[in-house]
Amino acid sequence: MNERIAAGLKRLFEDEGHRIVFWYDTARELREAFEAVALDGVTKVEIANNEFGLKYRMLRQEPKARFLVYKDGPEPPQADNWLLDLQLATAVFKADQAAIWLSELGLPGKFEAAVREHPDFYRSQRRLDRLKAFEQETPSQSPDGVRRKMLAVCAGADGDLDAVIEALLGELAEGQGDGLKLIGRSALAGFFWKEVERAYGYRSDEPDFQDFAITLFGSAYRRAMGEDGALNAEAALMFRRWANSRRWSEAFETLSSQYQTLLKIEEDLRGRAFRALMAHDHFEAIDREIIRSIVQAMANQTVSSPEVLRWVRERRQSHWYGRYADIYQAIGCATEFQQALAEANLTMTSVADGVKRYASSWFRLDQLYRQFIHHMQRSGQAGLLGALYETVENRYQTQFVLAMNNAWQDQVNRLENWAVPGYPRQQDFYREQAAEYRRKDQKVVVVISDALRYEVAEECLREIRKLNRFDAELKPMISTLPSYTQLGMAALLPPRDLAFKGDDSDAVLSGGESTQGLLSREKLLASGRAGDRAKAIKAEEVMNMAVSEGKELFRDHDIIYVYHNRIDAIGDKLQTEESLPGAVEETIADLVKLVRKLTSANVTNILITADHGFLYQHRALDESDFALADPQGDEILVRNRRFVIGRGLRPTPGMKKFTCAQLGLSGDFDVLIPNSINRLRRQGSGSRYVHGGATLQEVVIPVLRVGKQRAADVQKVEVRIVVPGKSQITSGQIAVTLYQEQPVSAKMQARDLLAGLYAADGTAISDEIPVAFDFTSDNAREREMPRSFLLNRAADAFNNQTVFLKLRERVGKTSHYQDYASHPFQLRRGMSTDFDF
């Protein structure tokens, strides 16, 4: 107590420069404190019927001395106060609780009302300390300035009224109201609502915070739609900043969900053109309406592919994008699929021409279809995408897969022997590709991923090339026929005579030896080159090795075959075949991890290939998709969905017959392959995922060469600010274009930035918008991003000054940002933010 009194007196004498300070001990309880206080250069005197003598001493005898004038009792009425004139010209020290609080805050006496009128606020030392910290950081210029800081303390906020509202909205979303209750107990409610009215235009005879919140959501939505809102532009800006804040994301979602129904947003949206909704995300219903409208428009063919892709890009900035990312990606894949299909000329002049066209562009249609199905499945919103799915499924099956493979079948029917001129055969893989490294005395690892279709490998190629200092090259290879696992795996081993085992299994012999199992394959692999230390191993074993174990494995062997199986393991079962798209995604992730694992073990030469490809369609097959007649012959050994092995097989309508000699195999067997995409009936097996036939999807398999570079080769795209017209801001908002200079590619990666307007001292004077630059288009116009920024109240203090539009980049995974790009503007507005929009 005595320390606070001494501090308060010291402030009046030294900080405020008073020569005389009066102290009335109204309750006659502070005499001991008066007697104990000692201030350098200050004389203590007491009023005790000696007013004239004191006045004469202080004014005439010691006109420059400092005096503390104490009275043991209340201040007399002005008419009876002989020292009133002197008192009015100096200062009065009040040592009651309010005065002590004022003193502790270091506030001048003119701020007394801001303390005395709100005693409940100051009874908490924690609140007092927090307010004191605010005052030390930025001293208030008025009692209301103190009250604004008190509101921030009550709400647990750091900052101005916007921050207070944000914190209170957070409490409201959690069903709490501690901040508002404290504002009420502190006698700040009236002041709070006056501040809200002044700042945001909220007026009510009975103000209520939930009512304000509902009005805020509704007003922001109306203003975004170009209509009048109940609140002003500053409220819309505060709302946008709060809704975009990571801190308040959950609170925004909770209240938005509650008020969406209350404000009848879904009904309102039905009467609006969906194109006008693209820039807005106040409610989740907006995304659902946009999705429904886009899907319907695509099904009706009333929108162009560039339009849809632009909308999908724009919605990436939506608050709700995370919930609908798979739907938007499915829409994007469907759009690209339809565009690619429209541009595809599915004709060919030879088998070589067919392979060339498939490997250069047609594979992309398989890829986009698979990705579409994958995202549709992951979204859990198949009903929402129903019309689009039917369109994509029908076009994929009839206009692409069937049309392309019917044309391809015409070329296959002309073949005497199974070979495609100009393209390597699977049987020659070891001699021409794997052994190439051994002839140079270089070690090599071959990764064989079961059913790694060419289009899947192409996506894997792009993922690998995204890695820093990694490069890869993809080329097509032609698989053996029939295109199934046992024969494909055998063909990738050192070349020997390949033959069907001849029993009722689909086993394959190489030079009369078994090719089944790791031990058999390892033995055959070691025979490829005299002295080679060979190893056949499962991918799971490699991935579970420590780095040191991986290095030992590579050190102790010259050629390693790593067997990976996820696609075929999932797709080749009736119960799980519809999960094929997800298995493909996991396979790509597996292979990228495997490549990194191998290179960490000092492996420098990696080949990735497959035993065969596959056909896949998500919808169950129609009867017309099966071959028309059952196969006939002297002996049928193996009957699969896509091939038949036997002896003395007779020509069958809808199927092409090959002898083993025509397929490059030994033995006296015949093989029947259903034409185009037809399947054979087979009890208990799946029919949506199949392989073994001669379609391009089954027989064009990948050879992916992976290497590692010495120098870093990955960088991010560059972004610049494009300003139309003069670099001036004359209203409450500004529109600019942000331009991504290069398309995103394997080695040119996306860049995430935070955009906003800032004063020279770093003060944010607009909303801050996260922007992702990940455009892949070669068309420069499609890499432009128009953005508008709304100025906030803080901008008023910087009128007629230079301000800056900045693009800021996050430093690693920290919460800090650094400037990436900046453009100066002259801020010249004739009206303040409160009246400007």
CATH superfamily of the largest domain: Alkaline Phosphatase, subunit A
Unreliable spans are 832-837
Which class best fits the helix and strand makeup?
Answer: alpha/beta
Which CATH first-tier class of the largest domain would you pick?
Alpha Beta
Count of DSSP-assigned helices: 30
Give the termini separation. 53 Å
| Coarse shape | elongated
Number of strands: 29
Radius of gyration: 40 Å
Mean pLDDT metric: 91
**Architecture (CATH level 2) name of the largest domain:** 3-Layer(aba) Sandwich
Major pleated sheet? 6 strands, mixed
Strand residues, percent: 15-25%
Task: Describe the oligomeric state of these chains in a short phrase.
Answer: single chain
**CATH domain fold name of the largest domain:** Alkaline Phosphatase, subunit A
The strand line-up of the biggest sheet is 6-19-12-5-11-10
* Count of discrete structural domains: 5
Q: Kindly state the percentage of residues in helix.
A: 40-55%
Protein name: BREX-1 system phosphatase PglZ type A
Pfam family, one: PglZ
InterPro entries: Alkaline_phosphatase_core_sf (IPR017850), PglZ (IPR014060)
Organism: Jiella pelagia
Describe, in short, the structure shown.
The chain is an alpha/beta fold. Helices cover 42% and strands 18% of the residues.
If you had to describe this structure to a student in words, what would you say it looks like?
- With 837 residues, the protein is α/β, with parallel strands linked by helices.
- The chain folds into five domains: 1-95, no CATH class; 273-412, no CATH class; 426-618 and 700-708, Alkaline Phosphatase, subunit A, CATH 3.40.720; 623-686, no CATH class; 715-835, Macroglobulin (MG2) domain (Immunoglobulin-like).
- 42% of the residues lie in helices and 18% in strands.
- The chain has 30 helices and 29 strands.
- It has a six-stranded mixed beta sheet with strand order 6-19-12-5-11-10, with helices on both faces. It has a five-stranded mixed beta sheet with strand order 22-29-28-25-26, with no helix packed on it.
- Strand 2 (42-46), helix 3 and strand 3 (66-71) form a beta-alpha-beta unit.
- Helix 23 crosses helix 29 (580-600).
- The radius of gyration is 40 Å and the shape is elongated.
- The model is unreliable at 832-837 (pLDDT under 50).
